[in-house]
Structure formats: C-alpha cells, structure tokens
Amino acid sequence: MALERTFSIIKPDATKRNLTGAIVKKFEDAGLRVVASKRIHLTMAQAGEFYAVHKERPFYGELCEFMASAPIVAQVLEGENAIAKNREVMGATNPADAEAGTIRAEFAQSVGENSVHGSDAPETAAIEIAYFFSGLELVG
Ligand code: UDP
Ligand code: MG
What we know:
Bound molecules: uridine-5'-diphosphate, magnesium ion
Strand content: 15-25%
Oligomer: single chain
Strand order of the largest sheet: 2-3-1-4
C-alpha cells in the first residue's frame, strides 16, 4: 500500500484547552507523520466554504460559528492508509459512540465540539489539503 495523505483540523474546543500536543501525539503514535501544520483563526466565510458540503444540514450555522470561534490547527498527515487510519484514531463523530482510546472518546465535549476533523475520502482529502496548503508547504 502506497503512502497516502489526509487533511486534519484540531478544532477550537481542543486548541482552547491546550490539547494540540496530546492530539498530535495520537497521530504520531498511530504512524501518521505531520507533513504540514499551521495554526490559524478562520473567518465565518472561510469556515462556511470549508463545510459547504453540510450547508443544508440543521447544524451548519452553529458548526461554522464554532469553527470560527477560536484558532484551529490545520495539518496534513501522511502514512500508509492515512485517510482510514486517521478516521480510526479520531473515533466516531459523536463522542458517546467513540471507541475507548480514540481522540474523540478522550477529548471531545459534544457531537459538535468534537476536537478534530479528518477527510473522509481521497477526493475530499485532495480538495481540503489544497484549500489550506500550497505544494511548497507539504514537507514529507
Ligand atoms: N456535527 C454536528 N452535529 C451533528 C453532526 C455533525 O454539530 O449532528 C458537526 C461535527 O462537528 C462534525 C461536523 O459537523 O464533526 C461534520 O460532520 P460529519 O458528519 O462530516 O462528521 P465527521 O466527518 O467530522 O466525523
Ligand atoms: Mg466529515
């Protein structure tokens, strides 16, 4: 299996509670390498564009407000089967359903404020990486 890249966000609930390092440790312990990383504060418009796929969902407005409420850490993770592996390390969207030891089981506060985002497929990973990073910023 070839190396794969996925896009990750450490969300505002986690950056506010100083959990960036603890979450990156989970990625690295799972064999995922951080090949790009930046801490930024999204505007409402940027959060809205990033989550445009969820525009029709009832939680969209609240989700955008949350994502623009404090800094995030945007990252590109690289490894074997990185997209699926990252989803595994993240745990289920709702922390109540997340397996023990996953990021969301340990750190998430609610289904909305659930500490991390991770791409769900190769197509979305490519789009999300390109939204946040230029090729020059990806250092494998
Ligand atoms: N979300 C929410 N309420 C819901 C479902 C999702 O607030 O009922 C938020 C949550 O922050 C989630 C994000 O919307 O991470 C994107 O939802 P998705 O279904 O793509 O979950 P994910 O891929 O993040 O596990
Ligand atoms: Mg998703």
